[in-house]
Amino acid sequence: MDLVISPSAVAGYTALGIVVVILVYGFLKQPDFLTVPRRPRYREVIVPGMIVSEVIEILRKPPRGFSLYQLDPAHGLVVYLEGPGLISLGCYYPLYVDPSTQGVLITCGIEPRTPLYGPPVRRRLVRMQRTVAQMLNGVAV
């Protein structure tokens, strides 16, 4: 008796294998945020009249729907983690806090746990930028 595998079964198993690899990659991903990513996916917030330590103290408490993943006041780094959603396993949001001549400059970045591109990433990044600006009474640039 010969074992015959239909082409649709091969395609189904291939798709299932790809999904499993993406899920395992997303769960095991542990990025290092001490180096600023060189991707163009970032937004900025300017907070006039505050210093870096005050901003980090306010950012220590994450907004609703996010958890604090990493906090490094010495490097001016706060990283939020968004939990899994309908189309992804969530995203990391590194916030780089730097002093500037206008006050404090916060660079908001995004690092999806699974491959995610285009408008969904831009919408999530803009939402984080607005959330940070509202938390600190800053200006989204």
How are the SSEs placed, and which strands pair?
Blueprint: H1 7-28, E1 42-47, H2 52-59, E2 66-72, E3 77-82, E4 91-100, E5 103-109, E6 111-112, H3 119-136, E7 139-140
Antiparallel strand pairs: 1-5, 1-7, 2-3, 3-4, 4-5, 4-6
Briefly say what this structure is:
The protein has 141 residues and is an alpha+beta fold. The protein has 3 helices and 7 strands, in the order H-E-H-E-E-E-E-E-H-E.
Task: Describe the 3D structure.
This protein has 141 residues and is of the alpha+beta class. It has one domain (32-140): Alpha-D-Glucose-1,6-Bisphosphate, Chain A, domain 4 (2-Layer Sandwich). Helix content is 34%, strand content 28%. Strands 1, 2, 3, 4, 5, 6 and 7 form a 7-stranded antiparallel beta sheet that branches. Strand 3 (77-82) and strand 4 form a beta hairpin. The longest helix is centred in the first third of the chain and has 22 residues, at 7-28. 21% of the residues are buried. The mean pLDDT is 86.
Quick tags:
elongated; 141 residues; alpha+beta; Alpha-D-Glucose-1,6-Bisphosphate, Chain A, domain 4
Mean pLDDT rating: 86
CATH topology (level 3) name: Alpha-D-Glucose-1,6-Bisphosphate, Chain A, domain 4
Number of domains: 1
CATH architecture assignment name:
2-Layer Sandwich
